[in-house]
Write a structure and sequence with these properties.
The chain is mainly α and 431 residues long. 66% of the residues lie in helices and 3% in strands. It starts with a helix and ends with a helix.
Amino acid sequence: MNALYKVFGFDAKTMTLKKEVLGGITTFLTMAYILAVNPSILGDAGMDTGAVFTATVISAVVGTLVMAIYAKLPFALAPGMGLNAFFTYTIVLTMGYTWQFALTAVFLEGLIFILLTLTGLRQKIVDCMPLALRRSISPGIGFFIAFIGLKNAGIVVSSPSTLVTLGNLHDPAVLLACFGILFSAILLIRNVTGALLVGILLTTIVGIPMGVTNFTSVVSTPPSIAPVFCQFEWQSILSVDMLICVLTFLFIDMFDTIGTLIGVSNRAGMVDENGNIPRLKDAFMADAVGTTVGAVLGTSTVTTFVESASGVNVGGRSGLTSLTAAICFALALFFAPFFLAVPSQATAPALVLVGVMMVHDIRKIHFDDFISAVPCFVCITFMPLTYSISDGILLGLISWVLLHICCGRGKELNAGMIILATLFVLKYAFL
């Protein structure tokens, strides 16, 4: 027991092995949908989906093991939702860069995050952001992810007159996605363990007779990561374009991770009255190492999953919970054919309902106080409306600082906020 305490932070006086293991399995089941969703999203960027699946699993195992042993916290990591969307739909498809270019940016920002974590600067950046604005990050990402899910499913489509409109409800693929959302929502309401994963499984099966799902096998040896392993564009690292991408990834990853860790810790009841999170610096290091290793393997930014709170809710409290989740991810490595055959109509429900979960913190924002409500509203709404998580966060902080200065409440601002807002204004002005 002393060894378990030293390695994983397991305290036999307040914890049980049974609850730790059950917590890890529960966490894995609630976030295993990423094994189907991440290859699908990065596949839209032109990456090999089989290789991305393997990279997703291995990066999840590595990041979660660091969380288990170094941070000793019951949180699991994997390529993050929202960040993978930014990778594909903003960096590659909107800005026009290659996925190799985007991976290089992820790798560089991972290294920078390690340095920021070691120096403690990352924690200081967290502390200088107002609590209300931090709480608006998670809901904004939730709306953005839900919008992507509805778009990928064909439920929401583009319109020349109204920008977006309702899709064709007579299309079997759209009907399948609607069924998946309804069924998965029912499972969540009934507190079924692994509701999102079960929803993906059943929706995929239902899609077979509808002609939407096509797969030939379920179990096989893991696909090679060779097509995406160490695929960096070193010749571009000194270019202005790379600087722009690294800075953008840096901002979005930093505040997305902050929002996720705060959201997970809040839902797990691990935040004190002052909003402090235990071993936050260690958790940041697990995230930074996971991101760097993930980029080498060939996947987007690795981050802590909000679904980790499900494992905490059933009793997981130490690194043993995350160790169990890492073992489950390793076993899933041999089920690539199934996860890769899952159609976007089956993963869309997970995106939509994860969006619902991430809106949780919006109730903690005091919308009757307009000086904080307006910046929070800007942060939340601009993420889906601009199709950019970073724009929502940056514009939210800029508006927070400007409103406080213009309303004669500049004394409530700290130096860090003013510096960040100035940097963000310069980013829009010159980058």
